[in-house]
Structure formats: structure tokens, C-alpha cells
Amino acid sequence: MSSGCVLAPPDRSAEFGELVDELRSMPGVNGVRDRYSSGFSQGRELRLEVLVEDAATVGELAAVSDTVRSADADGQFDRFTRRLIFALPQDSRFYSGVSRFVVGWGGWQAGYDAPAACWLELTHLYPGLVVDTIGHTPGAERNLLDVYLRTGPTAEAGPAGPDTLTAERAITRCLEVGGPGGGYEIRFRLDGPVVELAGSAPDVRRVLALHRVLAGLGGSGEEYAVAGFRMDGDELAEVTVAAVPEAAGVAEPDAEAVLRDLDSATAGAGVPGGEVGEPRILVAE
To answer: Which of 56-60, 65-69, 253-257 has the lowest mean pLDDT?
Structure first.
């Protein structure tokens, strides 16, 4: 055998099929979308998307994850790329989508309970939301709860729009479940910049108002676009900006220009909570 020959992984389709059948019979599971691939052209992949019942509990999700981890204990799937995701189909008044809670194949971590509870609760309290949630990351310096809220085409309808109110309620609930003071820092992905909440619980209306203002910065004719910002309490502490496409001829954003535009954009914008302080400017790579 030549030293350059790469052996294909053993056929594990039967074992994988047994695992899928077991998961489908577990409490809280409404179905399983599975993918098994071991060919050189398709890649070596195992994917489980577990469709959860409306009444599924955090404990039932954890039990499913433990079953997957136990089936993998002897390393029989080690040579495959593996993914485990919980999913709940969502029918909003705008479109149909799927809310997902990303776990990973390595099993339920101690820090997953609060993010999972947040995810389950949001998908039931606010059916107009499609929620992607990534919880505790093993080995990370902090527990970061990453929540992507999609509310449909009218997400930018304005301060009194129904989707803005929905997002406000959802953010408030996430903060109650696992946010500042609850062991997690929260990063929300809305339509526009990413907002990260740190420190004490912020005024959510102020955060959303700032989000709308910053979402309007950058774009056509501008030198930069706001990629994200961090709130420490109710203060705007940090803004991350990125240069517009190279065609604009801008190497990187200028901090003074960013601060000037921030001051201009927030002046008279109806942002609740007083004037915006001078945030730290970071340039996205």
C-alpha cells in the first residue's frame, strides 16, 4: 500500500440508522431529519436535525443529546463531520421558517439549560419570531448567549411597529433568563448591526432605538458600515465598523469620522436615555 493512500471510513450507516430510530421514539421528539454521507465527493458527514414537539422540555432535549453522545462513546463515528441541531418549524404571518438551537455533537453542556429554556420560551411566546440560538461554548472565556431574531420584512417598520415591540419583548425575556446578572452575556443579531449587551440590564428600548439609528449608517456613499456595537448598561460603549467595498477606495474607517457621524445620527433621533457617550471605535477585520 502506498503511503499516500487514504482509507475510507468503515460503513456506519446501519449504526447511524439505529440511532435515528431510537431518537424518533424519544419523548419530546416529533421527527428527525438525518443525513449520512461517506463518499469522497459528498464528504463524510453525519447530521441530525431533531424536530421537537411544541411541548418539549429542556430535560427532554438534554436526554436526546445524551443519547447521541452515548451512541458515539466508542468512537465509531470519529472520522465523520458531525452535527446535532434541535429545530422547531415556525409559521409567522410573514413566512415559514425554522427556529434552531445549535448544540453540537459533543453532548449537552452544563451551561445549555438557560439558553435552551430561552429558546423554547421565545418560540412559543412570540410565534412571529424565527429564533436561532447558540448557547454555551466549551472552553470559551465567558458564557455568551448568541440569539438571532428574524421578524420578517417589516422589521425596520419604525419605533412603534409590531415587530419592534416583539423584538423588545423577546430581548427582555432573554435577559431575564440568562442575561447580565444571570451568568450570560447576550449578543443579539437583528437586521443590521450585531448588538452585544454587557454589564447591568440595559434599557431595551434604548438599545433598539440605537440599533435602528446605527443600522442607517454606512451603505451607499459612506466610507464605512457599522458591523456591531456593545452596550454596557444603558451606555453605548463600543462600536465596530467595517470599510465599505474596496471600490470606494477606503482602506479603513477613520475613528474621528465615525464619532462625527455617530453624533450627527443620534442627535434628535429620539433615542431614549439621554445623549450617547463617546464609544470606543474598533475596525472589523
So the answer is: 253-257
Q: Are 80 and 44 in contact (CB under 8 A)?
A: yes
- What pLDDT digit, counting tens, does each position of 226-260 carry? 889 988 888 888 999 888 765 555 567 788 888 88
The position carrying cell 439609528 is 213
Q: From the CB of residue 9, how many other CB atoms can be counted at a distance below 10 Å?
A: 12
User: Do residues 258 and 224 touch, judged by C-beta distance below 8 A?
Assistant: yes
- 105 with 66: CB under 8 angstroms? no
Contact indicator for 228, 281 with CB cutoff of 8 Å: no
Task: Report d(CA 262, CA 239) in Å as an integer.
Answer: 10
Query: What H or E segment, with its residue span, contains residue 226?
Result: strand 224-232
Question: CA 156, CA 135: separation in Å to the nearest integer?
Answer: 26
CA neighbor of 262 nearest in space, from 195, 189, 213 = 213
pTM of the model as a whole: 0.71
Give start and end residues of each alpha helix (H) in 129-243.
162-178, 204-215
The C-alpha atoms of residue 221 and residue 271 are separated, in whole angstroms, by 24
> Which has the closest alpha carbon to 121: 194, 61, 181?
61
Cα Rg of the chain (Å, integer) = 22
Mean pLDDT of 129-134: 76
Give the pLDDT confidence of 83-116 residue by residue, as tens digits: 999 998 876 554 457 888 888 888 887 778 877 8
Nearest Cα residue to 141 out of 108, 185, 175, 103: 185
57-79 average pLDDT score = 89
Distance CA 262, CA 279 (A): 9
